[in-house]
Amino acid sequence: MDAFELACQQRGYKQIAGIDEAGRGALAGPVIAAAVILPLNCSIDGLRDSKQLTPKQRDRLAEDIHNVALSVGIGSADSGTVDRLNVLKATLLAMQNAIEKLEPQPDYLLVDGINFPTTDIPGEAIPKGDSRSYSIAAASIIAKTTRDRIMIALDQTYPHYGFQGHKGYPTSQHRQAIAQFGASDIHRQTFKLLPDKHRK
Length: 200
Known about the structure:
The protein is α/β, with parallel strands linked by helices. The protein contains 7 helices and 5 strands.
């Protein structure tokens, strides 16, 4: 999974940041983006795409990443921003914010997906990058664990929706709660929160 990083090193780049997001497909809560610069030739046991890991494994790896990373930046876009801009633009804005928080600043970016945030820093978008790039995999874990903690905390404020379990994603339990209690102020109003049969 370090082929992209090695190629960047061979071209003279030394501060290579992986970028990924979590929460883009959720019905509620923020989109969280993470940017991670790992030391060159870094090795973290078990590091891979966050979707292939259990919550316990992600938490352990997130701690390991924070311990060894040269820099970690986290950006967010709340549900209002998602509704105002659309989810793609909000995601790219969160990525831009995450990159700006890195210190030192990277000299090359590896971004998961097919879209690239607005920045003067060179880089490339890599489809399925979270399973192809070590740096992006690290960012995916940080983004996912950060967002999960936010949604678990929001479960205390909005106890009717079950955020602790589904983290705002469109499960049947979540849609049933929306049908019963209505949408909260952290739900994305521009998303299809309910199937047509539940719409008034």
